[in-house]
Amino acid sequence: MLSITFLIGRLPLTGGNYSILEIANRLLRRGFDVKIVTTGAKVWYYDHNKVPIIYPKEPKVLKYLLSPLSFKYKMIKEFAGFDYYYALSHLLGIDFDFAKRVMEIIPQSDLLIVNEFKTALWGFLAKWQGKVKRLAFFPQLLVPMSVLYSSDPRWYLSYFLPHDYYFALSNIDAKLAKPLLRSSTRVFVTGVGVDSKLFRVLKSYDKREKNVIMTILRSEKIKNSELAIRTLNSLAEKINFSAIIVDHGVLNTLKDKIKFKYISYSHPTYEEMVKLYNEASVFLITSRLESYSLTTVEAMSCGTPVVTTDNIGMRAYVINRENALVSKHHDEKELLSLVLEVLSNPRLALRLVENGIKTAKANDWDNVIERWIDVLKQIEVDI
């Protein structure tokens, strides 16, 4: 069996990091020798992790100086590894390079999987030093997200490094990445999945309260949170409804623009998200661009009809009017019309629910991990 190391910049709670932990743990259970190397953030959100996580040694002086601030800044309690340096670099406006220290903790491995521009460079250096035999790039971002929407040109340069393999989320991801990759880089579609044992139907659609709209607000411009607010404001002029807002740090800046009833939840756990999906009669997503849009699959898996913008990533599994309704123009009038259509047409809503559940099952982790194992078997032959 291959020895595999995931080299991740930091491990705070994100959809991408949760996927990395899920993949690593499932591969470990299937007999692979798996480790994770990261420079910071405790994995408090994945309590069933069995994969060894290797951190660099924490700077004792900085840890001692910053610890008292944890009473005011709760995130400090989640610090690990070099997070204390990251905090200092943020205050000073300096981008520290940890390459030398990271090299010291990367174990000898058959395959090193990296996920962003810093780890891509560190991975290249690790291979050059002979610590790893093969290098794979798994950014979990579509090229437009990492290159066009990023202010850091290092994302663009990271695709040109001599990776042996590129792991794509979907055929769309593979097609967009190929022009930037070296001709010698082999491209595999490995993907990510949804945990259908966790994200499941707790309350059948016909038992839910009517006219409950769920949406997620994020600060990144490409998430287009203001479009969600405008759409729901327009909906409030047509019907009575209540909204479930999952807030990731942006609600305070948009609060004055909201003209509808809502309940907000800040950074809910995955278990809490399952309950929220099961309270909704429509899940609304308004992103300009998504790499895969896992929240869409999560909502489907919970039996919630989805109304979404055409954000490219969802094209990997969404069929318009079969398992979701799609707005191609990113326009609140069109989104409003689609939300009203779901709410007023029970037959359509149930078709979206049934086909959405089927879509989620097809993209369940049990199926996705088989693709990963098939790819790893091919790599094992290379080595």
UniProtKB/TrEMBL annotation:
Name the UniProt record assigns to this protein: Glycosyl transferase family 1 domain-containing protein
Alphabetical list of InterPro entries matching this protein: Glyco_trans_1 (IPR001296)
Residues in the signal sequence: none
Species whose genome carries this gene: Sulfolobus acidocaldarius (strain ATCC 33909 / DSM 639 / JCM 8929 / NBRC 15157 / NCIMB 11770)
Alphabetical list of PANTHER family matching this protein: GLYCOSYLTRANSFERASE WBBK-RELATED
Every Glycosyl transferase family domain range: 208-358
Keyword set, alphabetical order: Transferase
Gene Ontology MF terms: glycosyltransferase activity
Organism superkingdom: Archaea
